[in-house]
Amino acid sequence: MSVNQERYHTFVILLEQLRSQAATHQTDAQQLRQHLLSLQEFFRQQILPLAEEKIRELSYKTEMSKQLRLLEIDVMFLQGARQAATAVDRLKTISDRLTIIIEYCQTILQSEAPEK
């Protein structure tokens, strides 16, 4: 496994942990925000600096960056939710957005996988 693949794989694991945390509906919005901040830091330090072998990878990284910024807004909306139903809807949106980012990572991992 290349260094790029290892970093994307680690990023996927972190994304899945956050998605699992959001799916429990028992999560504290502040705790979710802290996890998101560490996830964004990992993305900035470990994923963004990776050299793109294909222009397509750059497009996916751009989209992931956008989704992470939107995720931050979703978490802010979750923190402002006053009703339980609204909080559940926000958590669903967060989970869906995380799924999108995971799919982008998996697409990059598949494109980097050596041909058999």
Polypeptide structure, described:
The longest helix is centred in the last third of the chain and has 29 residues, at 84-112. Helix 1 runs antiparallel to helix 4 (84-112), helix 2 (29-47) packs antiparallel against helix 3 (55-80) and helix 3 (55-80) packs antiparallel against helix 4. This protein has one domain (3-112): de novo design (two linked rop proteins) (Up-down Bundle), CATH 1.20.1440. Helix content is 82%, strand content 0%. The protein has 4 helices and no strands. It is an all-alpha fold and 116 residues long. The two termini are 14 Å apart. The chain has helices spanning 3-23, 29-47, 55-80, 84-112.
Cα distance spanning the termini: 14 Å
**Backbone shape:** elongated
Mean pLDDT, to the nearest integer, reads 90
* Low confidence ranges: none
In total, the number of domains comes to 1
How many extended strands? 0
CATH class: Mainly Alpha
InterPro entries: PatD-like (IPR047810)
Organism: Fischerella thermalis JSC-11
Protein name: Heterocyst frequency control protein PatD
Question: Which characteristics define this entry?
Answer:
mainly alpha; de novo design (two linked rop proteins); Heterocyst frequency control protein PatD; PatD-like
What can be said about this structure in brief?
The chain is mostly helical and 116 residues long. It contains four helices and no strands. It has one domain: de novo design (two linked rop proteins) (Up-down Bundle).
